[in-house]
Structure prediction request, 128 residues.
Amino acid sequence: MSLLVKQLLIMPYLLIHLIFSLALFLAIFPASTHAEVIEYNIVTDEFYGLNAERVLLVSNKDDADRKVKVVGKCKGRGATDLFLEDDPTNAREHWFVVSRESDLVPDLTICLSGNAPNWYEKAARPFK
Prediction:
């Protein structure tokens, strides 16, 4: 058999193995392939964005409108501004922060840019 014929016969074999490997990878890591991460830029008291998403962090998941999981820092400035309220009066939504160890399924997965220490401080001691 010529070399060209051998190469043509081995191509379907390699293609099947490549497809099988890709399917196996997607089955093992579904969260990383299907996750939608919304980027937020945290605004502070000095710069109160009028169109910012204003949320109050709550300590009880039953009191929350959304369960939110933070997956880290955004690569750039977030697409939407986020202002953390300390009073429920002006908050549009109440969020419960889902920890990495929790078995709760989050409604929203986000990354943060901006004043991240402000977020983590309020997430650690959410207002009631």
